[in-house]
Amino acid sequence: MPYSQIYLADEIVNIEAIIQPNWLFSQWKSYNNVILPNSSSMIASFVASGSDSCVLYTYPKPDLEAFISGNDTICTNDSHEGEVKVFFKTKKELDKYCRSEDILHQGYVAEIEHLENPELKEFIKGKNNLTFVCLDEVTDPRNIGSLIRSAASFNIDGIIIKERNFPSDSKLMYKSASGCMEHMKIFEVSNINTTLKYLRENNFWIYGFESNSSNKFTDVKWEGNNVLLFGSEGFGMREHTKKYTDFSVKIDINKNIESLNISNSAAIVFHHINQYKNKT
User: Fold this and answer.
1) I want to staple 213 with a disulfide (CB 3.0 to 4.6 A). Which of 39, 161, 250, 272 is the partner?
2) Residue 219 burial (CB < 10 Å; 0-12/13-18/19+)?
3) pTM for this prediction
4) CA dihedral 55, 56, 61, 65 (to 10 degrees)
5) Are 180 and 106 in contact (CB under 8 A)?
6) C-alpha to C-alpha distance for 242 and 272, rounded to whole angstroms
7) Under a CB-based contact definition with an 8 Å cutoff, are residues 208 and 242 in contact?
């Protein structure tokens, strides 16, 4: 039923509309189909004329599909290469995607294809001053994701991890990485020790991080090609893997504290090395 109210000529009229969720606001018009001024939102105001009516125009909410372009703007043009199709789902439907790993989706869920695995031997050809991170038996998806985020933030050139230990299908890892997976080279290898041996033979220094080391990592001149080797939480580096390191270093922390979480340790190291390289 239309709502009506009488106003005097030249009186200021304030109007506000509340519409149902399955309809979208269009604009306010007069009865004679003239667009009213300041009517681009559901709240508008205008000066009443001698005799007139205002009409609220809405339209049904369409089946919502859109495209996100490479610069993260939503557009309605036809699909082009590199764009991502967007579907609007209910909270219940989104909850199903996250239930297996008990994570919160915050209203957005992305389905992606696996990233192409780069080849380590090809990547290092002709390059100098590279810094890689190597994870020995680190398996927790949250820690790996956080570490990837820190590595991308502080210009680490790549992460080496055993193929069997890399949780490539983990939603939790991608969420913890906060969009940084696409900015980091992940080298999945079949054998960590063989990979370290190959890198040593190709002018890389291997630094193993251990809490009981007598050498502070901040005393190192971080020049040339380097690999930062981190062991798993609780067990550290495997004894056999230590044989492939050139130096043992540590993060100097409060002596009353046994150790740091690996993602926190890595962030400290990455930041320091990035600062060092920026100054030299």
Assistant:
1) 250
2) exposed
3) 0.67
4) 100
5) no
6) 23
7) yes
- Rounded CA-CA distance 44/202 in Å is 70
Please give the single-letter amino acid code of residue 76: T
Judge contact between 63 and 75, C-beta under 8 A: no
CA atoms within 13 A on the CB side of 180: 21
pLDDT digits (tens, 9 = 90+) for 172-200: 898 888 888 888 999 999 999 999 999 99
Q: Where are the beta strands (DSSP E) in the chain?
A: 12-16, 23-30, 43-47, 54-60, 65-68, 74-75, 84-87, 131-136, 158-162, 186-189, 204-209, 225-231, 247-249
Question: Which amino acid would we find at residue 192?
Answer: I
Tokens matching residue 277: 């390289």
CA distances from residue 172 to 95, 109, 113, 142 in whole angstroms, order as listed: 14, 12, 16, 6
What φ, ψ does residue 131 adopt, rounded to 5°?
-125, 115
